[in-house]
């Protein structure tokens, strides 16, 4: 499993739309058998900063399965307007975890 983290800087006047569009994108994302979980967080200290976290079954499943499948096109349609606002996108191997 890998975990994808993105960092967005969203202007205040677009934040409600961003959250609404990510909620719509989430419905499409979770149709994929490769997507295992999702969180969207907003920074407490700087409300313009948002971090979506997506758990994928593997890097290969993400790149060869999801990115080439129909769920990606539907997901991407919702988030495409925000791509210029991405400050960082990284993928990580999970080394440990606590909680359920």
Report on this structure.
The protein is of the alpha+beta class and 100 residues long. The chain has one domain: Alpha-Beta Plaits (2-Layer Sandwich). The protein has 3 helices and 4 strands. The protein starts with a strand and ends in a 7-residue tail after the last strand. The mean pLDDT is 95.
- Total helix count? 3
Spatial gap, N to C terminus: 16 Å
Quaternary form: single chain
Q: How much is the radius of gyration in Å?
A: 14 Å
Mean pLDDT: 95
Structural class by secondary-structure content: alpha+beta
- Taking pLDDT < 50 over at least 5 consecutive residues as the criterion, the unreliable ranges are none
Named CATH architecture: 2-Layer Sandwich
| Overall strand count | 4
Strand neighbour order, sheet with most strands: 2-3-1-4
Query: Which range best describes the helical content: under 10%, 10-25%, 25-40%, 40-55%, 55-70% or over 70%?
Result: 25-40%
Apparent shape = globular
Following the backbone from N to C, one meets helices and strands in this order, namely: EHEEHHE
Strand content: 25-35%
- Using the coordinates above, name the CATH class: Alpha Beta
CATH topology, anyone? Alpha-Beta Plaits
Biggest sheet record:
4 strands, antiparallel
Q: How many structural domains in the coordinates?
A: 1
